[in-house]
């Protein structure tokens, strides 16, 4: 399209206004255009833009439209344009990233964090794990970290996880069992079929279910420091092994359970030996609770 320029016959703002009107007119017909001044005739023309995936090889002239050419490999143009060359696909997927869209003539390469990671400050960081006592409310995505919240009343989370939600406590009554240890935000409710929690007449070959209930009652909520004191009391005099790290609480609980089971298998004195160890470890409050529940006075 030609726009005739007549020097001295129009105010200085007339030509830009006319060109803007022509560009808007082109946009209204869904044919993007741009103003171009012919180098030979010095006439202002309105040229058509090149579609995505191409670039402008040659602008339009009075007798020919804009000439476009496809982008070469590893180059692209994403929008209608009158660029003299295509853009280079310069996005390279980095560490812990994966390609979600390859480089094409119409798009740059696109990357995102691999599963299990999320983007933060230009890096892909591993999704956080919700600690014991808290559950996942929104799993992590490539753009967002794991969202956690403390387990509400009646639910628990026993371990660290980036996917597990808080689980409801076991209903002992519905299972036909008796509640032994109430559930907390860190562990499930522990049920038992031990009748009346009575171990007053514990003998070799006694009720194994009641023995298990006793150990559950002692070990479930005991602190790490108290576990160490109980371990030392059960070991008796002599050289003591180096104390485990605090994160080894579960392993220490298992070790003590095995130690007590060996005592019971050897002489059947699990209840009596555990009460003595609790006294030696100066765990008087726990000793009283055990006596009250499992060894009631007759």
UniProtKB/TrEMBL annotation:
Xref: CDD domains: TNFRSF6B
Entry keyword annotation includes Heme: no
GO terms classed as biological process: apoptotic process
Entry-linked Pfam families: TNFR_c6 (PF00020)
Record's signal peptide: 1-29
Residues in TNFR-Cys repeats: 70-111
Cysteines joined through disulfide linkages: 71-86, 93-111
UniProt KW keywords: Apoptosis, Disulfide bond, Glycoprotein, Repeat, Secreted, Signal
Alphabetized InterPro entries for the sequence: TNFR/NGFR_Cys_rich_reg, TNFRSF6B_N, TNFRSF_decoy_receptor
Subcellular location: Secreted
TNFR-Cys domain mapped to chain residues: 70-111
Taxonomic superkingdom: Eukaryota
Major localization listed first in the record, in broad terms: secreted
A cellular component annotation (GO) from this entry: extracellular region
PANTHER family assigned to the protein according to its UniProt record, in alphabetical order: TUMOR NECROSIS FACTOR RECEPTOR SUPERFAMILY MEMBER, TUMOR NECROSIS FACTOR RECEPTOR SUPERFAMILY MEMBER 6B
Protein name: TNF receptor superfamily member 6b
Provenance organism: Loxodonta africana (African elephant)
């Amino acid at each position: 399209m030609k726009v005739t320029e007549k020097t001295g016959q129009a105010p200085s703002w007339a030509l830009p206004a006319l060109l803007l009107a022509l560009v808007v007119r082109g946009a209204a017909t869904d044919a993007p255009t741009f103003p171009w001044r012919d180098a030979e005739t010095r006439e202002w023309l309105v040229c058509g833009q090149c579609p995505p995936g191409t670039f402008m090889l040659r602008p339009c002239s009075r007798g020919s439209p804009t000439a476009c050419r496809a982008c070469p490999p590893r180059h692209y143009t994403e929008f209608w344009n009158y660029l003299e060359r295509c853009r280079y696909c310069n996005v390279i997927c980095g560490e812990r990233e994966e390609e979600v869209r390859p480089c094409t003539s119409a798009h740059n390469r696109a990357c995102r964090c691999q599963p299990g990671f999320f983007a933060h400050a230009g890096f892909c960081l591993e999704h956080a794990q919700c600690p014991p006592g808290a559950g996942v409310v929104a799993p992590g995505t490539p753009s967002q970290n794991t969202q956690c919240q403390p387990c509400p009343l009646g639910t628990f989370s026993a371990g660290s996880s980036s996917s597990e939600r808080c689980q409801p406590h076991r209903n002992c009554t519905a299972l036909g069992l008796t509640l032994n240890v109430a559930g907390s935000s860190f562990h499930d409710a522990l049920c038992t079929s031990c009748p009346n929690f009575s171990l007053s007449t514990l003998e070799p070959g006694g009720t194994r279910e009641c023995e298990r209930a006793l150990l559950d009652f002692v070990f479930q909520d005991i602190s790490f420091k108290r576990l160490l004191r109980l371990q030392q009391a059960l070991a008796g005099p002599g050289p003591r092994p180096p104390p485990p790290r605090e994160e080894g609480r579960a392993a220490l609980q298992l070790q003590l359970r095995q130690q007590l089971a060996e005592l019971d298998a050897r002489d059947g004195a699990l209840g009596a030996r555990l009460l003595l160890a609790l006294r030696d470890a100066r765990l008087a409050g726990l000793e009283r609770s055990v006596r009250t529940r499992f060894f009631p006075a007759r």
